From TrEMBL:
Entry protein name: Alpha/beta hydrolase
GO cellular component: membrane
PANTHER family assigned to the protein according to its UniProt record, in alphabetical order: AB HYDROLASE SUPERFAMILY PROTEIN YCLE (PTHR43798:SF31), MONOACYLGLYCEROL LIPASE (PTHR43798)
GO molecular-function term, one example from the UniProt record: hydrolase activity
Coiled coil spans: none
Keywords noted in UniProt: Hydrolase
Domain AB hydrolase-1 stretches: 23-253
Length: 268
């Protein structure tokens, strides 16, 4: 089923759902969309209420020039959970989606959260003076902002390629590029900046829900050290390394990813 949830006047969040049972919500990365999780929808629908959604201004959700921050995306997620009357939810956050998971818990608590799965993300993307494993320094972030404004398609083609260990096929690049260029460049720049400077390092120790950390061994985007840092700071969390993946183990090692996540949910 494909539908929309109105989270505030003029803002509709697109979602797809299939199956019944405990809700499992898949949350995509910056510029991406729910389509990146299409290989998860049917698999998880066998045992769960499997839900994919597009964040505000992404994919098929309303494209608006306000509220494009991680904190607002977390509020939108909360509104979706309430309006769909979801209980005991599993949140799967990939890349920026992990920040939305953490901000959701920070704002609304974890009473209604069964568990979380964090896929290939740092506690902060920014390379702070005391956080040298960060992905971006100010020069890199500035260069990305310029590329988004002046050379987006070529830049994003290279960015998408960097997310995978193996070379993408032309048709794969084509559909991904179509997804990540749906929003205007102004929105793309705004959310890139916000998601690049949020910092959850101080919040991690307060997370009490069961947490599975899924990281690709290939370090073209996010280092394995990021997963080790999260494991050290989120009590009781489990770290799973995907040896043949980079930033997208759910696409690169789909069968293993689905089985590992399913097993984790069932044992928590």
């Amino acid at each position: 089923m494909m539908a929309y949830v109105t989270v505030e006047q003029g803002i509709d969040i697109y979602y797809e759902e299939k199956g019944t049972g405990r809700p499992v919500i898949f949350l995509h990365g910056v510029w991406m969309s729910s389509r990146f999780f299409e290989k998860q929808l049917s698999y998880f629908a066998e045992n769960y209420r499997s839900i994919l959604l597009d964040f505000r201004s992404h994919g098929r959700s309303s494209h608006v020039h306000h509220g494009n921050t991680v904190a607002t995306y977390a509020k939108d997620l909360h509104a979706c959970i309430e309006k769909l009357d979801l209980k005991d939810v599993v949140l799967v956050g990939w890349s920026m989606g992990a920040f939305v998971v953490w901000d959701y818990i920070r704002q609304f608590g974890s009473e209604n959260i069964h568990s979380t799965i964090i896929v290939d993300e740092l506690a902060s993307d920014f390379k702070w003076p005391d956080f040298d494993i960060g992905a971006f320094d100010i020069a890199t972030l500035s260069a990305f902002m310029t590329e988004i404004q002046t050379n987006r398609s070529e830049f994003l083609t290279g960015f998408l390629t960097s997310m995978f260990k193996d070379e993408l096929k032309p048709d794969e690049v084509a559909w991904m590029l179509e997804e990540v260029t749906k929003m205007p460049e102004s929105i793309a720049s705004a959310i890139l900046f916000d998601q690049s400077i949020v910092d959850y390092r101080g919040f991690l120790p307060s997370i009490t829900v069961p947490t599975l950390l899924c990281f690709g061994r290939e370090e073209k985007v996010i280092p394995v050290a990021a997963g080790e840092h999260l494991k050290e700071n989120i009590s009781g969390s489990q770290l799973e390394i995907f040896e043949n993946s980079c930033h997208c183990p759910f696409l690169e090692e789909t069968e293993r990813f689905n089985e590992v996540v399913d097993r984790f949910i069932q044992t928590e």
